[in-house]
Specification:
263 residues; alpha/beta; Rossmann fold; Alpha-Beta Plaits; 2 domains; 6-stranded mixed beta sheet; 7 helices; 26% helix; binds flavin mononucleotide; binds iron/sulfur cluster
């Protein structure tokens, strides 16, 4: 057991990124873990990270980091704090996302010490058209724990003042891939199935869902980031998200990809 504090900062609407962060943390075997889950909320005050390592994790949206995750990460500053930078993607590609997250964290005072791209079930995956369904699976989790063990060994061998601003080179390009225009859309709802249980309201990272007059669920397309957390959490299967990308992803990205590391 390593006697240090480990912070985890995670944005993870459907839980894949958070799962990987937790497995890497398990592999690191540290005495204290504090988790900052910024999926729905952010700290009210600016947070200055200490000397212990920090895991930062977010999903890949369109080969980039979702804007809302970057916005929320602005609440955290490092003081040459070593960062383990992780992205999860739905078995298509992570393109410039890992580089973008490393660059942003560097600008905020962190030193990316290690990085990884993991695969998690695609937000658009369904039973009929599964895309990376069930991932991260046991093999992914085991890989994440092994990576964590390697990272803590590398970290414990270094003195803090030995860190250089660019400890690692990750895959990805700058200028980053251009983001597509925002096309307002939100999951549709089958009112007959909906029991107004409120589970979808609880998981929505952007507070796009509201209960109108105690009898209707409304989803604000302008706020929706299409994460599908509400679709996956609805116990009545009353929510669905229609997109032509599902069939394309299902047909073209069925071959299993494996995690990649930069250490
Ligand atoms: C709007 C949107 C865009 C996405 N873009 C990509 C992508 O470019 N490449 C990819 O492989 N997966 C993509 N995904 C899938 C997510 O990266 C994947 O489901 C991820 O594991 C979700 O992380 P989470 O479970 O932590 O929320 C996208 C998902 C959404 C909702
Ligand atoms: S989670 Fe499903 S059943 Fe519950 S309020 Fe939302 S749409 Fe209705
Ligand atoms: S309404 Fe949109 S942003 Fe909110 S949980 Fe559903 S898909 Fe995600």
């Amino acid at each position: 057991m390593h006697n240090t504090q480990l912070d985890i900062i995670t944005f993870s609407p459907t839980g894949g990124s958070a799962c990987i962060a937790n497995e890497v943390a398990r592999g690191m075997e540290v005495s204290n873990i504090k988790t900052w889950n910024i999926t729905k909320e952010i700290p009210t005050e600016q947070v200055c990270m200490g000397q212990g390592p920090v895991i930062v994790t977010a999903p890949v949206y369109g080969g980039r980091i979702p804007g809302i995750a970057l916005e929320r990460l602005q609440k955290f500053n490092g003081e040459r704090t070593p960062a383990i930078v992780l992205v999860t993607y739905g078995n298509r590609d992570y393109e410039d996302a890992l580089k973008e997250l490393c660059d942003v964290l560097t600008q905020q005072g962190f030193v990316p010490l290690a990085a990884g791209a993991f695969i998690a079930e695609h937000s658009y995956s369904t039973q009929e058209m599964p895309i990376a369904q069930g991932r991260p699976d046991e093999a992914d989790k085991e890989t994440a724990r092994r990576f964590g063990a390697q990272v803590i060994t590398a970290w414990s061998k270094k003195e803090k003042n030995q860190y250089t601003p660019s400890e690692i080179q990750v895959k990805g390009n700058f200028p980053y891939k251009v983001k597509g225009a925002h096309t307002p859309q939100a999951p549709s709802i089958d009112q007959e199935r909906c029991t107004l249980c409120g589970a979808c309201l609880d998981v929505c990272p952007t507070h796009a869902i509201s209960l109108i007059d105690d009898q209707n669920i409304f989803s604000d397309q302008a706020l929706c980031i299409k994460c599908c957390a509400c679709v996956k959490s609805c116990p009545e299967e009353a929510r669905s998200f229609e997109t032509p990308f599902r069939k394309y992803l299902f047909e073209n990205f069925a071959v299993r990809k494996e995690p990649e590391f930069f250490l």
